[in-house]
Amino acid sequence: MEYTKKSLRELGIQELKKIATSGHKQEKERKLYQKLFQSDEWKHAHVIGLTISNEIEVATKPIIEVAWKEKKTVLVPKTGPNRQMKFFQVDGTTKFEKTKFGVFEPISDRFFAPDNIDLLLVPGLVYHPLGYRIGFGGGYYDRYLANYNNQTCSLVFQEQLNDQWVPESFDKKIQQLFIDQ
């Protein structure tokens, strides 16, 4: 049976909510962090781009803290017109504002071009085992990834894996899925 992206998004949100309330989320995240921090992608990256997670997603605050401890530059996206996204440097003093979508974006003017980002941690709701993802539906990451040529990875709970859909031509493949198994 093939699902629609809309139904998969709903399914993905349900799965993430179950994980968030299961009492096992931190243990699952610990496994993902361990895989990320031991990876060559992480070790070789000096500039990391990632989002500020919401309560049901894999928590990104611990990743940011490790990155700063390791003297890596951390970037967080801001959205703009035409569903475009740009990444800006953040540090411990950066202020954030909550968008109408409930996403925290930095108040920062330290812009980084895509070519200057070594590793992009791409969020998603559902992941195809081949590396494709379904996000929240705005298309921001697919547009950004069309012009991004460096390393990409995602931190994936095994419950988010689903091969019952066919990626579309504009869907961009994530190079490395770190799965909590």
UniProtKB/TrEMBL annotation:
Keywords: ATP-binding, Ligase, Magnesium, Metal-binding, Nucleotide-binding. Substrate binds at I52, E57. Its EC number is 6.3.3.2. Coiled coil: none annotated. GO terms for biological process: folic acid-containing compound biosynthetic process; tetrahydrofolate interconversion. ATP binds at K5, K6, S7, L8, R9, R133, I134, G135, F136, G137, G138, G139, Y140, Y141. Gene3D superfamilies: NagB/RpiA/CoA transferase-like. It catalyses: (6S)-5-formyl-5,6,7,8-tetrahydrofolate + ATP = (6R)-5,10-methenyltetrahydrofolate + ADP + phosphate. The keyword Metal-binding applies. GO terms for molecular function: 5-formyltetrahydrofolate cyclo-ligase activity; ATP binding; metal ion binding. SUPFAM superfamilies: NagB/RpiA/CoA transferase-like. The keyword Metal-binding applies. Pfam families: 5-FTHF_cyc-lig. Belongs to the 5-formyltetrahydrofolate cyclo-ligase family. This is 5-formyltetrahydrofolate cyclo-ligase.
